[in-house]
Amino acid sequence: MESQADSDPEPHERSRNVVFVVLDTARATSVSDRTMPALSKLASAGSSFENAFATAPWTLPSHASMFTGTYPSEHGTHGDHPFLNESLRTLSEAFSDAGYETVGVSNNTWITEEFGFDRGFDRLRRGWQYIQSDDDMGAVVRGEDLREKLDATRDNLFNGNPLVNATNILYSELIQPAGDDGADRTTSWVENWLEGRDDDRPFFLFCNYIEPHVKYDPPKELAEQHLPDGASYEEAATIRQDPRAYDCGDYEIDDREFAMLRGLYRAELAYVDEQIARLQRALERTGQWEDTLLVVCGDHGEHVGEHGFFGHQYNLYDTLLHVPLVLHGGEFTGGGKRRDLVQLLDLPETLFEATGVEDRAFVEQSRGQSMHPASETDSRDAVFAEYVAPQPSIDRLEARFGDVPDRVRSFDRRLQTVRTQDAKYVRGDDGFERFHDLEMDPHEQRNLLEELTAGEAESGRQQGKRQQHDRHQSKRHQHHEPSCRDRLKELRRRLDDQLGDIDSIGTEAGSENVSMRAGTKERLADLGYL
Fold it and tell me: Domain 17-128+202-274+292-381+514-526 has what CATH class?
């Protein structure tokens, strides 16, 4: 593809290195000084965006939005079509054409060359592999006991290069730290790359750490620091972690077990926090820290029992959309806490302004806007998100579990949401709607649409048959109803203007069929996607 960048191939005079770190499945509400002290320290020294939101509740469409500056219904990358649209310009292509060395390390199977995310990278590594290979030995790693591991080794060892496969198996089984899913290997590789680098160009480095994703399996010493009182690591480790089976009623998780799972999840965040600290030390040791803009964010959040869900599918609650976002370096150093609404798809424009990179083709396709302190763009007064297709689909759930509950079957829908500082509206293509006053109901427990409907029904009854309490309730509804209705009408209009007709989102790209390697399917199934 011929470069469409307007900038000269030589780096702009303001160019600096960019390190873009994604903490897979990191939700904002679980990030604190206790769980992530290194990130908290960076936030204090840099800029912390307290109201940052993803455009989608799971990895594939969220990363596609960050890489292209577009919403899911525009980039068309989702469960029914998992390949990044080749017609869209990517963040890595923009930096590459601006003269940067571009390197990526991904520990999430979705964000690999198999799904088109390598465009613009000089190198995009699979972080969980010791030696890079198209043949994944994850089936051996996932074996529950020695017999299963031996059987998986026998079945997979000679798929491709047996020496490479054997090396990857030995690394994962004997060398990789306990509770690690690629983070240690990733950070070590980046450290070695920085120390051995002799390229004069600035660099764009992307890293995805997947540890906070199911299965929560942190190192024992970290787990014991974050589990609730009276819970042991051994007890917590026995809890079944299968979000789709939980959704479908295949098993139950009680409140105490969810409390332990939340402890394991916080410990996973603590583990990736250690990787952030190692990255910073490596940048300092190699003399790159002062010339580096560091970005750390979650790509989406997680439900660990909230709203009756486990995992990150089938809905658009803030638990899944509200993510941590910290920038450090250059003009972002000393920026403090910022409470304006921002979206992850705003990152490309922000990085361009911070580095002086210009890319007209990217800007023309992008829906983002710069968060740079010097930006003349007005702050957002609303953020938007979409869920284009259920992942896994209801058909796949039926194939695995047989009949699925009606509650789960109702999740077979597209969703859109608009959120301001004080209100949120969600709608589905099946007529589903939610409306929340976030000042009164920050955790989205009270759907005001239900109250408005109840108020309409009540107003039709005869006044003489109401009790005194009901009359007070009616007066309250009559007092608030016009304001509620006006806000709801405005949010519906904003959603129409920004994202268009919900009945049409995702339909064009979904017609294509993308095949996957057998090892990829196994790894994605293990992560709960298939």
Answer: alpha beta
